[in-house]
């Protein structure tokens, strides 16, 4: 499946947030990219604000439009608050969970580990980044990949990150999905209600 592969710093500067992990560029140039980036900002319309929020969520989780629309459609059919359900579905993706467990330092790196068959789900190799996990699923590093320097470096750095909806066994290099995360346990700066309003037009 295709994904955004363009300039990452440009996207972070567009939203004035380090959504793809770039902090230094924002400190040096805390204005939008392009020749008019320093100019006076015009007030955005309601639609533009909603669209920007959707675009930001897409970039954060590494989805393209068709994938995102499909996920929103699924969230709207489920019981509960649509916006929160959408974020839960995004968090339950395999590539995102590998990132949250600390196995990879970024979602892009997590996606690569999954595609290259370094990750198992319930003991079986899964190489589909969009694979949806459910409570009780076990996500771990394949036995042959446990000695990979990239994985061990990430775990040593990211290990301090803890999420209430995930459990991690460092000895076995296996994590468990305890439950889908409630909104307060999702740290991303996304106003999901704006996305719901956009798709409701």
The count of DSSP E runs of length 2 or more, i.e. the number of strands, is 5
- List low-confidence stretches: none
- Can you give the mean pLDDT? 87
H/I helix tally: 9
Q: What gross morphology would you assign?
A: globular
Radius of gyration: 18 Å
CATH class of the largest domain, named Mainly Alpha
Q: Distance between termini?
A: 28 Å
What is the helical fraction, as a range of percent?
A: 40-55%
Structural class: alpha+beta
CATH topology of the largest domain: Ribosomal Protein S4 Delta 41, Chain A, domain 1
Count of the separate structural domains: 2
**CATH H-level homologous superfamily name of the largest domain:** Ribosomal protein S4/S9, N-terminal domain
Under the CATH scheme, which architecture of the largest domain would be assigned? Answer: Orthogonal Bundle
Quick structural gist:
It is built from 9 helices and 5 strands; from the N terminus they run H-H-H-H-H-H-H-E-E-E-H-E-E-H.
Q: What does this protein structure show overall?
A:
The chain is of the alpha+beta class and 201 residues long. It has two domains: 8-89 and 189-199, Ribosomal Protein S4 Delta 41, Chain A, domain 1 (Orthogonal Bundle), CATH 1.10.1050; 94-179, Structural Genomics Hypothetical 15.5 Kd Protein In mrcA-pckA Intergenic Region, Chain A, CATH 3.10.290.10. It is built from nine helices and five strands. It has helices at residues 8-15, 24-28, 46-61, 65-77, 82-91, 94-100, 107-115, 149-158, 192-199; strands spanning 119-121, 124-125, 138-141, 166-169, 174-177. A five-stranded antiparallel sheet has the order 2-1-3-5-4, with helices on one face. Helix 5 packs across helix 9 (192-199). The chain is globular and about 55 Å long. The two termini are 28 Å apart. The mean pLDDT is 87. GO terms for molecular function: rRNA binding; structural constituent of ribosome. Pfam families: Ribosomal_S4, S4. Belongs to the universal ribosomal protein uS4 family. Residues 92-156 form the RNA-binding S4 domain. InterPro entries: Ribosomal_uS4, Ribosomal_uS4_bac-type, Ribosomal_uS4_CS, Ribosomal_uS4_N, S4_RNA-bd, S4_RNA-bd_sf.
């Amino acid at each position: 499946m295709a994904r955004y592969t363009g300039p990452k710093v440009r996207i972070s500067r567009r939203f004035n947030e380090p959504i793809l992990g770039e902090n230094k560029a924002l400190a040096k140039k805390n204005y939008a990219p392009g020749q008019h980036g320093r100019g006076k900002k015009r007030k955005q319309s309601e639609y533009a604000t909603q669209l920007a929020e959707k675009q930001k969520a897409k970039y954060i989780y590494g989805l393209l439009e068709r994938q995102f629309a499909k996920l929103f459609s699924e969230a709207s059919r489920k019981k509960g608050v649509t916006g929160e359900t959408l974020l839960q579905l995004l968090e339950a993706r395999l590539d995102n969970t590998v990132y949250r467990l600390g196995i990879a330092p970024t979602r892009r790196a997590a996606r690569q580990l999954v595609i290259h068959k370094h990750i198992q789900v319930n003991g079986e190799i899964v190489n589909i980044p969009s694979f949806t996990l459910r409570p009780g699923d076990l996500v771990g590093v394949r036995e042959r990949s446990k000695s990979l320097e990239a994985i061990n470096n990430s775990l040593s750095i990211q290990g301090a990150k803890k999420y209430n909806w995930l459990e991690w066994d460092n000895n076995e290099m296996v994590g468990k999905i305890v439950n889908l995360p409630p909104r307060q346990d999702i740290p991303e700066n996304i106003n999901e209600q704006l996305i719901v309003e956009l798709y409701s037009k």
